């Protein structure tokens, strides 16, 4: 692994963006013709957001 990608000495903050993510987020995709498609996403009430925990994956 390259040194710039080794985060073993760093400490992350769990839930750092939780509240902002609950408010929703915007995705913008630039198309080949130069136009931009914008879509706004929010979690509906009762929706479950699943995230992959990389720390539990086996190292290859």
Care to describe what's here?
The chain has 60 residues and is of the alpha+beta class. The chain has one domain (15-56). Helix content is 10%, strand content 20%. It is built from one helix and two strands; from the N terminus they run H-E-E. The chain has one helix at residues 18-23; strands spanning 25-30, 36-41. Strands 1-2 form a two-stranded antiparallel sheet. A hairpin with a 5-residue loop joins strand 1 and strand 2. The radius of gyration is 17 Å and the shape is flat. The N and C termini lie close together (12 Å).
Question: Which features does this protein show?
Answer:
60 residues, alpha+beta, two-stranded antiparallel sheet, 2 strands, 20% strand, flat
The tally of beta strands, per DSSP, is: 2
Strand content: 15-25%
Overall radius of gyration: 17 Å
Q: Would you tell me the structural class of the helices and strands?
A: alpha+beta
Spatial strand order of the main sheet? 1-2
Quaternary arrangement of the chains shown? single chain
What would the average pLDDT be, to the nearest integer? Answer: 78
3D shape: flat
List the helices and strands and how they pair.
Blueprint: H1 18-23, E1 25-30, E2 36-41
Antiparallel strand pairs: 1-2
In short:
The protein has 60 residues and is α+β, with helices and mostly antiparallel strands. The protein has one helix at residues 18-23; strands at 25-30, 36-41.
